[in-house]
């Protein structure tokens, strides 16, 4: 029974652990707190994954090593990501485990059309350049024959996301409770969102299929919808009235930057909400056989996670599907 080592127990790491354990695989989840799913087939380990020696020891014998970490808020990325990424590469090299990275779309920067995995990494902000650099380093080690690496890129998460740090869900949570949804970007441009279990399925497929190694893949996602449409769909499922969507004027958002560092970091990414932000994952479906979960299923699962569906109690959450 192959061993799979997952670094991180956020939405994706948790969903991946359930998926692999349900398939009969042996799963080891590493976090600083020792958290993760409490279930058969999953061993939870308290460890500092940025310590290469410690991570390597826990990854010995693993078929795959998954980077599902999210090291703190955006304001700490420049400090926390480089040592963690370096440790993951070292552990993958020393153990021979396939390194499968849960990535995002930040590395592309502003785009003018649908995003495909072969787009240049032309990020203009610090977070996007950091993610691009991490993948380039992993790819260089892969091409040198030192590791086997792949990256799976998703858009903003929907589904059971804890903590609820996905922008679409932050906007949608008030809507499903009948309150106005306050948004920072244009609510009427199409924007792809990605269902968390689909990220997990794509990661598992990419890690186990040698055709996936040495390149990036996009997670199959439902057809892009606007924030207004997404909020309306979730509110309808929750039995709430159609939501009122209120956009915060951009000058007002920028006025808060000097006193709100985290908002300033989010502000660097608002270009994603000013024009269509559409993910093309057709190649993933064709090669790896992964298809997006239908939108109506995504809506139902997301409302359950927000605790706002029929018979639900506000504030109640469920584990990732």
TrEMBL record:
Pfam families: Epimerase. Residues 6-209 form the NAD-dependent epimerase/dehydratase domain. This is NAD-dependent epimerase/dehydratase family protein.
């Amino acid at each position: 029974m192959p061993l799979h080592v997952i670094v991180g127990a956020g939405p994706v790491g948790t969903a991946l652990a359930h998926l692999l354990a349900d398939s009969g695989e042996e799963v080891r989840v590493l976090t600083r707190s020792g958290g993760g799913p409490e279930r058969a087939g999953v061993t939870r380990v308290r460890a500092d994954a940025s310590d290469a020696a410690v991570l390597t020891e826990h990854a010995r014998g693993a078929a795959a090593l998954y980077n599902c970490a999210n090291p703190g808020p955006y304001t700490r990325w420049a400090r926390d990501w480089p040592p963690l990424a370096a440790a993951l590469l070292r552990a993958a090299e020393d153990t021979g485990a396939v390194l499968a990275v849960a990535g995002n779309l930040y590395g592309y920067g502003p785009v003018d059309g649908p995003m495909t995995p072969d787009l240049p990494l032309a990020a203009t902000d610090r977070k996007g350049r950091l993610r691009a650099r991490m993948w380039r380093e992993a790819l260089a080690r892969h091409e040198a024959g030192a590791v086997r690496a792949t990256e799976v890129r998703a858009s903003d998460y929907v589904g059971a996301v804890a903590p609820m740090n996905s922008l679409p869900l932050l906007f949608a949570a008030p809507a499903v409770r009948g309150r106005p949804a306050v948004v920072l970007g244009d609510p009427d441009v199409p924007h792809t969102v990605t269902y968390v279990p689909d990220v997990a399925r794509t990661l598992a497929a990419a890690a186990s299929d040698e055709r996936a190694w040495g390149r990036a893949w996009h997670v199959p996602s439902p057809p892009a919808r606007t924030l207004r449409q997404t909020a309306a769909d979730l509110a309808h499922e929750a039995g709430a009235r159609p939501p009122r969507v209120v956009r915060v004027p951009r000058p007002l958002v920028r006025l808060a930057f000097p006193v709100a560092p985290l908002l300033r970091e989010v502000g660097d990414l608002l270009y994603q909400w000013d024009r269509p932000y559409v993910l093309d994952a057709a190649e993933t479906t064709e090669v790896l056989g992964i298809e997006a979960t239908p939108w109506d299923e995504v809506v139902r699962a997301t409302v359950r996670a927000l605790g706002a569906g029929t018979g639900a109690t506000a504030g109640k959450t469920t584990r990732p599907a």
